[in-house]
From TrEMBL:
A motif (GXSXG) lies at residues 354-358. Its main location: cytoplasm. Residues 15-131 form the Cyclic nucleotide-binding domain. Residues 323-484 form the PNPLA domain. This is Cyclic nucleotide-binding protein. It comes from Stenotrophomonas ginsengisoli. GO terms for cellular component: cytoplasm; membrane.
Length: 609
């Protein structure tokens, strides 16, 4: 039986909040309080399901076969209800990912309460049904959950600047309405941080009173540091970017607390915030920070810049607006036009990704380029440089890869993905593993080369492991599912339409003989009428992969931005890029109006619609 000192904890559980207070009190008498420390197991796969649990506060991981993360369970949610009602064995392990408190209801107690409170059974079964529906129709990837308690830990040799902590707290309050900073100095007099159970109870009370917590560590109290970070959903490492300059090509050494804590959090629950003193300081050498810190996301901020901290706060609260750009060759100019309309209206993007031509747009966004700069680069690359206009003997690819590589090096220089202002990912297709290759670090020109290596048209890229990589559109032409796995929350999916149905007038039996085809090739001819050329066939084939992405995005609540194709436009019609850009702009202006304007779109982003 739960002690009276807990008052009415069931009022905090949505499942029971609608019950009368007397009914909750009756139910509470049948329940037991269970406390778990970070890393402890609640149930093990294969055990008898003889009870239900409800999370009062904390976070738990559901692990299949001991290691595969299949779900995360947070405050107010039930644990183990599927096996309980099906009267089967537990189908997974459940482990506390932070210090947690739960309520346990045994089978006999449940039956007693059910006889007195039939409405409780209906409420539980509704939750049970929602879980099953989610498991059946949910996204194929598991997005990270929004953290309730965030632990700030020094990265490298520096302590946390107080103004940085305050700027982040202010941004979290602006985004989510609540945030409270806790430091070792806030402990009540007489509370010994060595007493882990009392400290855990006090932290739980603070979370209940204040909502989201920002816990500061690394101030010289190791007992506080370790106990407080066990209570956190997310570990956010904070370091001064230019400290990497002091370590040449070596990794920035870990702070002692970092070294102890990195192994206690899953990579998906680790973030890295790198600050610099002023906006004129270039972002560089991020890889030296990431070399020994497996951060799920990293954030570049300038101290005292509210917009930067607002972006971090949106990523931490599930309100970050992602943008995913699909592949489609010259049609990619439509992405740029659509961006011009949305950015001119005042929309801000927080994280971006793409495939093929969409990769170039994503990287340009992440680098802070304007749509005008993007379009100038588009025309210079494809028209002036004719990057895809130099041909090679048809042995490894139809296009001269050396000219393409030189053009990409000129476009991107030494810029690296991890040094861009925004988090950015690029998708290629790995023919050695038969999977998508997600690129989030490394030279931008190499990432672009991998992501846009259209099979047959361009020689594949061979990475340092010897894997063969080609255009990401071969597997996932609109990689929205990658974004779903990186963050929760809203996304805009920019998808290129190949236009009207592709039909040709040239009959199949009109194809010329081998000798005549060779003669046409030597004379520089365009082939037999409008019969599809190799590059056209391959590029158009990859557009098929867009359909499955469209279904998944609609299911996830993403909003689709799909500019029309201008008449006569084709996947390799680079000279029509300006017309396609204008079509994308005009479309996005109408699209934004249909959404209700910028304010309505921001309300959707923030979950206020």
């Amino acid at each position: 039986m739960l002690s009276d000192s807990n008052h009415d904890p069931l009022a905090l559980v949505p499942l029971f909040a609608s019950l009368q207070a007397d009914d909750r009190a009756l139910l509470l008498e049948q329940m037991q309080l269970v406390s778990l420390r970070k890393g402890e197991y609640l149930v093990r796969q294969g055990e008898e399901a003889d009870c239900l649990y409800y999370v009062l506060r904390g976070r738990l991981d559901v692990l299949r076969d001991g290691h595969q993360l299949v779900a995360e369970i947070g405050s107010g949610e039930p644990v183990g209800e599927i096996a309980f009602f099906a009267d089967t064995l537990r189908t997974a392990d459940v482990m506390a990912s932070r210090d947690s408190q739960l309520l346990r209801l045994g089978r006999s107690e449940f039956e007693q309460v059910s006889a007195l409170q039939p409405q409780l059974v209906q409420s539980i079964l509704r939750t049970f049904g929602r879980r099953l529906a989610s498991a059946t129709t949910g996204a194929p990837v598991l997005p990270p959950r929004v953290p309730d308690t965030i632990g700030l830990c020094p990265a490298g040799a520096d302590t946390l600047p107080p103004d940085l902590v305050q700027d982040l707290c202010s941004a979290l309050i602006a985004q989510a309405g609540s945030c409270h900073v806790l430091e070792a100095g806030h402990l009540p007099e007489g509370l010994d941080p060595d007493n882990e159970y009392l400290l855990s109870d006090w932290l739980a009370a603070q979370e209940k009173a204040h909502g989201r917590l920002l816990i500061v560590t690394g101030q010289g109290n190791p007992h506080w540091d370790k106990a407080a970070l066990r209570h956190c959903d997310q570990l956010l490492l904070c370091g001064q970017l230019d400290r990497a300059d002091e370590h040449t090509d070596a990794a920035v050494p870990l702070h002692a607390l970092e070294a102890d804590m990195l192994g206690r959090f899953r990579n998906r629950h680790i973030g890295l915030l790198l600050w610099r003193a002023h906006s004129g300081q270039a972002i560089a050498h991020t890889r030296r920070w990431l070399a020994n810190r497996p951060a799920h996301l990293h954030h570049h901020v300038v101290r005292g810049n509210p917009a930067h901290f607002q972006r971090v706060a949106r990523l931490l609260t599930g309100r970050a607006l992602g943008a995913v750009f699909g592949g489609g060759g010259a049609l990619g100019a439509g992405h740029i036009g659509a961006l011009r309309a949305l950015l001119n209206a005042g929309l801000e993007l927080d994280i971006v990704g793409g495939t093929s031509i969409g990769s170039s747009v994503a990287m340009a966004c992440a680098a802070g380029e304007t749509p005008q700069q993007m379009m100038e680069a588009f025309n210079y690359f494809f028209l002036d440089k004719k990057a895809f206009g130099h041909y090679a003997p048809p042995l490894y690819g139809l296009i001269d890869q050396r000219h393409v590589d030189a053009s990409l090096r000129e476009r991107y220089g030494d810029t690296r993905l991890e040094d861009l202002d925004l988090n950015c990912y690029v998708v290629a297709a790995n023919l050695s593993t038969n999977q998508s290759e997600i690129l989030r670090s490394g030279p931008c020109w190499e990432a672009m080369r991998m992501s846009a290596s259209i099979p047959v048209a361009l020689a594949p890229w061979i990475n340092r492991n010897g894997d063969v990589l080609v255009d990401g559109g071969l597997i996932d032409n609109v990689p929205a599912s990658v974004m779903h796995g990186i963050k929760p929350g809203p996304n805009l999916v920019f998808m290129l339409s190949p236009g009207e149905r592709w039909q040709v007038k040239t009959a199949y039996d009109q194809l010329p003989s081998r000798l005549r085809q060779l003669w046409q090739l030597l004379r520089g001819g365009k082939g037999q009428g409008d019969f599809p050329r190799i590059g056209q066939t391959v590029a158009r084939s990859m557009q098929i992969a867009s359909n499955s992405a469209l279904v998944a995005s609609r299911r996830s609540g993403d909003r689709l931005v799909q500019p029309p194709t201008v008449p006569g436009m084709a996947l390799t019609a680079w000279k029509m890029g300006n017309a396609q850009e204008q079509a994308g702009y005009d479309y996005a202006c109408r699209w934004l109006e249909q959404q209700g304007g910028l304010d309505a779109l921001l309300a959707w982003r923030d979950g206020r619609h």
